[in-house]
Amino acid sequence: MSRIDDLIKGLCPNGVEFRRLATLGTRNAGISITAAKMKEITVPDGEIRVFAGGNTIADVSYNSVPSDRVIESPSIIVKSRGHIGFTYYDKPFTHKSELWSYSLNDPCINQKFVYYYLLTQVDFLSKKAKATSVKLPQLSITDTDDLNIPIPPLEVQEEIVRILDSFTQLEAELEARKKQYAYYRDSLLTFPEFGGGQLTLADIVTKVSSGATPKAGSTKYYYSGTIPWLRTGEVDFQNVYDTEIKITQAAVSETGVKLVPSNTVVVAISGATAGKSAVIKVPMYTNQHCCNLQINSKVAEYRYVFYWLAAHYEELKSLGRGARKDLNASVIKSFPIVLPTLEDQHRIVSILDKFDALVNDISSGLPAEIEARRKQYEYYRDKLLSFEELPA
Fold first, then answer.
1. For the stretch 112-143, what's the b/e string if a residue is b when 16 or more beta carbons lie within 10 angstroms of its beta carbon?
2. Which terminus of the chain has a smaller tally of CB atoms within 10 A, N or C?
3. E runs forming strands in 122-276
4. CA distance 294 to 131
5. pLDDT in tens, 295-304
6. pTM, rounded to two decimals
């Protein structure tokens, strides 16, 4: 910050010029393409990246999209619908027609600097998008064209980019450590260095159950509820100590919900989390889309089963049936598991628990470090990108 302060004091002590984003370069239109088409033309190592809403992307070959709509220069992509945001991309790309992008070609402007500044405007634009659309938040082109961008001297821009790049690189390294853990876990459980027979989950459980959903909207079943009730959206490779929604004693007495004991392994049957698993750490109830596996402690360590399912998530998920690719209790019970001796299971769990605490513990692990770095980054980003405008 001291170097930035010195640069500003020396190069622009009275403020900086502000210019409309539309005047800084070229606004690019997108292509008409469906999600199904994007999936169809996706290829490994595709040279062109196609951006859609949210985080949806497809890497495709050059001959799969109109050549005149391929953008070769580094650009800033506007995520204009639903989840509002910006992406900086410096390889060949295109995007769906409801998105647009800016390629800035002014030699006095560092495009990455403009990108970082635009990130400070996301909250403002998100509120604007919600205010103008009843259903899905939607920006108009003029919403971004008319944004006023500070243009300090290029030396100031470049120093700010250098600082903010270092923050984002650190966060990327922390995320890479999470992937490293997942790789180690999967390797350990996919290629075990021990003997052991292959069984199915049905061989190692004492009980398999599902839950129920009390009538939606019923105040009798939900209002002032204090009893945890788990939905599949909360099943995401973690220990579950509490739930977003609570139910009442009336729901317990009058509906088909069933109490699930602690240390039960839960597998989501349907929805976006189908195939994902979790461990219930306090007794609670679940909805009917949770498959609850009570593990026989005489033959299997419940956390070993949880780690096994997490490591084989993609294989389990691929067994989904029907248009929605839902699982069911029969499919889950028949899923294979390699079961070493209890001693070896405890050894593996001990190793993976240490990694899990490092990677996933909210208070002391990587998520805490990543969140702290993100807050630090946002603080410095906003501070670095606050400029006084030159007086008229």
1. bbbbbbbbebeeebeebbeeeeeeebbbeeeb
2. C
3. 148-151, 197-200, 205-209, 227-230, 239-240, 245-247, 259-260, 264-268
4. 48
5. 999 999 999 9
6. 0.54
